[in-house]
Amino acid sequence: MAGRSKVTALLVVSLLLSIPAAASAAGSALSEDVPVRGGTAALAEVIPISPAPDRARFMAEAIRVVYSWPQLGPYTNEPMRRRIAAFLASANSADRHDDVPVPLTAAVWSQAVFHRTVGRDDLAAAILGDRSAALVCYALAGMDDETLDFFASHPALLSRIAERSPAQFAAFGESLRIHGGKLIVPGGDAAAASWEAIAGEKLDRTDRFVPSLLEVDRGRAAYLFDLLSHLDAATLSMTAGPNAGADSLKRLASLVRRAFPEWEVIAAPFVRPPADLAQFFGRLRNTADVDGGGLRTAGFWQKVFDDSGSAGDQPADVAWLAEAVLAHPARERERRLDLFSFVERVASAGASDEAVAAAHGFGSYPVLMLTLERMGVRTLPLYAAAAQQAEKLTALDSARGTVALAQFQGALALVARLASVGTTDSATAETLARDLFAIRLDDSGRYSGGIASWISTRVLPLLPPRAATATIDDAI
Q1: 29 to 104, 144, 251: CA distances (angstroms)
Q2: Each residue of 101-142: pLDDT tens digit?
Q3: Please, which residues have CB within 8 angstroms of residue 12's CB and are 6 or more apart in sequence?
Q4: Residue 142 burial (C-beta neighbours within 10 Å; 0-12, 13-18, 19+)
Q5: Which of 224, 395, 408, 427 is the most exposed place for a label (fewest CB within 10 A)?
Q6: What pLDDT was estimated at residue 100?
Q7: Distances from the Cα of 172 to the Cαs of 7, 27, 136, 215, 272, in angstroms?
Q8: Residues contacting residue 27 through CB under 8 Å, at least 6 positions apart
Q9: What is the pLDDT of residue 16?
Q10: CB within 8 A of 10, min separation 6: which ones?
């Protein structure tokens, strides 16, 4: 009996010890299923969202749709918010409801965001009706468990974000990854000092660094952080890693601080500026020799963009090139992005005058240059010859130039079509184009049969055999 009593006592003690542990585990839950009264399908029609998102993504998608619209002005989301509030208020506990997951628990939301008690049954309505809470929820929904756990255990951090930077948090929060209590930054330890200088806070104080990153420069530093978090290893190495200059990150931060004046993330967290840094990095990855580390020289790009300056053989690192392309109004940014990509695609490595001439041709006649590129032309002087011929045609008055220009464009379109359908290979298409560009205009600005002769002598022999009675049009 004594032995049995000892066993019973041990079991009781073990049970008592396990209760706090279980309670602690329940208190640190990283999400909670909460009801949407009236059902998600009906609420999706009210918002409206079509088709209705699945339950796992319902809150994030609803928030994105509702808060993509401004709160004030002619496009205000106020009517949408009123419809949602009316729908949820009219539903009662007896109506149909669907449970949807919400990051963190009602207790954490009550303490850190709402500063009042909000029960589980009312949590979805409270979040959807409050812009700051909704934007915080959107960001948290994209985080991993360890990062969520950090925010759950730092309610003061969540409170500050909800009050000062909810839009920045929604826009860029999914890039925040906290491991072992420390924020993982793009570029790793090599970039730590630069990130600390940008945010004005030490990385080892994560609960202070994160809000500083979100708030500094109206969220522009967080925008840069988010972009770099999504770069591939080779591009990141040239931007914020061991292959980047010591001040590369700071220069990029300075660029995004003043660039894109038409964009304000605080007002539009789900919008990005046109021709922005993300598009620059996409073009860089897809066209430049990132793996080889070659971006040509700064002097070369100054000639390409017709910029003043004499950078000479100074290397064009990522920060320098980003500034050369993006530190301009939106339309000019778009032009320079296209020009940068074109040069990288058609010009082999190096900084030749022929590449600069081809770039200038693209600047004046982009469709003509893109047509040659699609034909497979890689001989740079041919781009310059095409631009010179186009310039002559453009200089003609409308009475004389209209016919000549139509002949030129039609003949080149014919060559492009022959190449695209495989009747000719790219080398033959290039030869045909070279011969076309060499046809001279007479003193009156006419081809005087030159195009017709080119078709008869150069194009027709390349076509399949035809009947003796077939016309040139039939053969083509």
Answers
A1: 7, 13, 41
A2: 999 999 999 999 999 999 999 999 999 999 999 999 999 999
A3: none
A4: middle
A5: 395
A6: 96
A7: 55, 27, 11, 12, 11
A8: 105, 107
A9: 35
A10: none
Q: How far apart (Å, rounded) are the C-alpha atoms in residues 173 and 165?
A: 11
Q: Report how far residue 304's alpha carbon sits from residue 337's, in angstroms, rounded to the nearest whole number.
A: 12
Distance between CA 109 and CA 218 in Å, rounded? 25
How far is residue 145's CA from residue 391's CA, in Å, rounded to a whole number? 61
User: What pTM did the predictor assign?
Assistant: 0.85
Per-residue pLDDT tens over the stretch 248-305? 899 999 999 999 999 999 999 999 999 999 999 998 887 776 555 557 888 889 999 9
pLDDT for 312? 66
Supply the angle between the helices 155-164 and 145-152 in degrees, to the nearest 10.
90
- In angstroms, what CA-CA distances link 428 with 193, 345, 458? 56, 20, 10
pLDDT at 10: 37
Q: Which two tokens stand for residue 370?
A: 């893109």
- Which of these, 64, 54, 157, 178, lies nearest to 113 by C-alpha position? 157
Phi first, then psi: give them for residue 96, nearest 5 degrees. Answer: -60, 145
Tokens of 449: 């049969």
Q: Which of the 8 DSSP states describes residue 438? A: T
Burial class (CB in 10 A: 0-12, 13-18, 19+), 170: buried
Residues 99/102/105/111 CA torsion (nearest 10 deg):
-120
pLDDT at 93: 60
Among 203, 257, 204, 253, which residue's Cα sits nearest to residue 228? 253
Q: Which residues of 376-411 are buried (b: 16+ CB within 10 A; e: fewer)?
A: ebbbbebbbbbbebbeebeebeeeebeebbebbeeb
The ranges of the chain with pLDDT < 50 are: 1-27
Q: E strands of 49-126, at which residues?
A: 97-103
Establish whether the linkage from the previous residue to 51 is cis, with ω within 30° of 0.
yes
Helix 277-287, helix 248-258: angle, nearest 10: 130
- Cα distance between residue 77 and residue 70, in whole Å: 6
Tokens linked to 326:
């993006």
